[in-house]
Amino acid sequence: MADENLSPGNIAKALDVSDGKVKKAIKDLGLEPAAKRGVCSFYAPDQVAKIKTAVGA
To answer: How would you label 20-35 residue by residue, b for 16+ Cβ within 10 Å and e otherwise?
Structure first.
């Protein structure tokens, strides 16, 4: 797993939005995680940009 991958919780903190908005955007966009560790999913920077656009941050 690359260090730049972020969990939905960390994405929400970075964008200053709720976890729920980030999780909804991920589901609506149909994004697959760039990496998984156990039950945790991590998303790449290019995916974070798509999520940012979707939540309007």
So the answer is: ebbbebbeeeebebbe
Joined tokens for residue 45: 């920077």
C-alpha–C-alpha distance, residues 35 and 54, integer Å? 21
Helix ranges, the chain (H): 8-15, 19-29, 45-55
Interval 14-26: pLDDT, tens = 999 999 999 999 9
> Model pTM greater than 0.70?
yes
- 40 CB contacts (<8 Å, ≥6 apart)? 7
What count of Cα atoms within 13 Å lies in the side-chain half-sphere of residue 20?
A: 0
With 90 as the cut, is the pLDDT of residue 3 above it? no
